[in-house]
Write a structure and sequence with these properties.
This protein is an alpha+beta fold. It has 2 domains: 2-63 and 145-320, Aminopeptidase (3-Layer(aba) Sandwich), CATH 3.40.630.10; 65-141, Elongation Factor Tu (Ef-tu), domain 3. The chain has helices spanning 2-9, 19-29, 157-172, 193-202, 246-258, 274-279, 306-320, and strands spanning 35-38, 44-48, 54-60, 65-71, 76-82, 94-97, 102-107, 122-125, 138-141, 146-147, 151-154, 179-185, 206-213, 234-238, 264-267, 287-293, 302-305. Strands 1-2-12-3-13-16-14-15 form an 8-stranded mixed sheet, with helices on both faces. Strand 10 and strand 11 form a beta hairpin. Helix 1 (2-9) crosses helix 3 and helix 3 (157-172) packs across helix 7 (306-320). The longest helix is centred in the middle third of the chain and has 16 residues, at 157-172. The protein starts with a helix and ends in a 6-residue tail after the last helix.
Length: 326
């Protein structure tokens, strides 16, 4: 799964511009699927099995990025954020446009050099007065994938780690009594848009998102963040956008315990996932989330532990291989 993750993270796919990553995922999963299609919003929807419960799994393909809003005569571009771009992570960072052009983010000189500039004080240095980039072009942050052993570091692990988990689950799932939809969703970072339309179309009986969550195992983090890397996937209880269905929580925790899969219980104080969109679709759907603990979320150097991802795959395969108890 590590080599797959390396490939996934290095494909630029800011929200709304997921075509390159979608094509790669489709070529990877086609042989394991009963049906593959792309909907009008750009979600890749992969079905396996028929009968039983209709289960929707979702992991988003998109990543945060930037869009060029203005270019001056010297080739310096002002930009708008795509998703939750954090100014503190931008200075000195590189961005890669979909056609391969590279730019470097820096900022105007300010009276207080100790203060982080705001995004509207920053610019992308395109390296030339005639850079071949125009207003409206989009770019993703550019940073290599690094293998640290059990842990890996890269940009876009939010949520390419979830995408890798779904692909690996599909590969390992020999059979299922259910009709399972693996949804590689678009535009999550700008408001769970892809999962909203996909859930409406699929009308699932149960929904599970696979996404990253915050971390509580570095110096001086808030004491209410009780999730650590390497201790297993986290079963979400609550985040800012969703209260997970107690039946889904019990199904996940009992299955993990029965199969000897280490897990953590997660209460996230900020942020949400595709599960929020699934839960609120049509007349409502029992939904939950399996989370991969991730340090430095929305930075160009996110970090995850591959043991947590492997645990998530094992848990999903176990869940999909049994009857849903509600």
């Amino acid at each position: 799964m590590k080599n797959l993750l390396r490939q996934l993270t290095q494909i630029p796919a800011p929200s709304g511009y997921e075509h390159q990553i979608r094509d790669f995922i489709q070529s990877t999963v086609a042989e394991h699927a009963d049906e593959v299609r792309t909907d009008a919003l750009g979600n890749l929807i992969v079905r396996k099995g028929s009968g039983g419960k209709r289960i929707m799994l979702a992991a988003h393909m998109d990543e945060i990025g930037v869009m060029v809003a203005h270019i001056d005569e010297n080739g310096f571009a002002r930009f708008a954020p795509i998703g939750g771009v954090r100014p503190a992570y931008c200075l000195g960072g590189r961005v890669r446009f979909l056609d391969g052009h590279i730019g470097v983010i820096n900022a105007e000189r300010t009276p207080d050099p100790a203060k982080t500039p705001s995004l509207d004080q920053m610019f992308i240095d395109l390296g030339s007065p005639n850079p071949g980039v125009q207003v409206g072009d989009v770019a993703a942050f550019d940073r290599s994938f690094e293998d640290l052993g059990e842990r890996v570091v890269s940009k876009a692990l939010d949520d390419r780690i979830g995408v890798a988990v779904l692909i690996e689950t599909l590969r390992r799932l020999k059979s299922t009594p259910h009709e399972v939809y693996f949804v590689f969703s678009a535009q999550e970072e700008v408001g769970v848009r892809g999962a909203t339309t996909a859930a409406f179309h699929i009308a699932p009986d149960v929904g599970i998102a696979v996404d990253v969550t915050g971390w509580g195992d570095t110096p001086k983090v808030p004491p209410m963040v009780d999730v650590a890397l390497g201790k297993g996937p986290a079963i979400k209880i609550r985040d800012r956008g969703m209260l997970a269905d107690p039946r889904v929580i019990a199904w996940m925790t009992e299955t993990a315990e029965k199969n000897g899969i280490p897990y953590q219980r997660e209460v996230l104080l900020s942020g949400s996932t595709d599960a929020r969109a699934i839960q609120l679709s049509r007349a409502g759907v029992p939904a939950g989330t399996i989370s991969i603990p991730c340090r430095y979320v929305h930075s160009p150097s996110e970090m995850v532990d591959m043991r947590d991802a492997e645990g998530a795959v094992a848990l999903l395969v176990a869940l999909l291989g049994e009857e849903v108890p509600f």
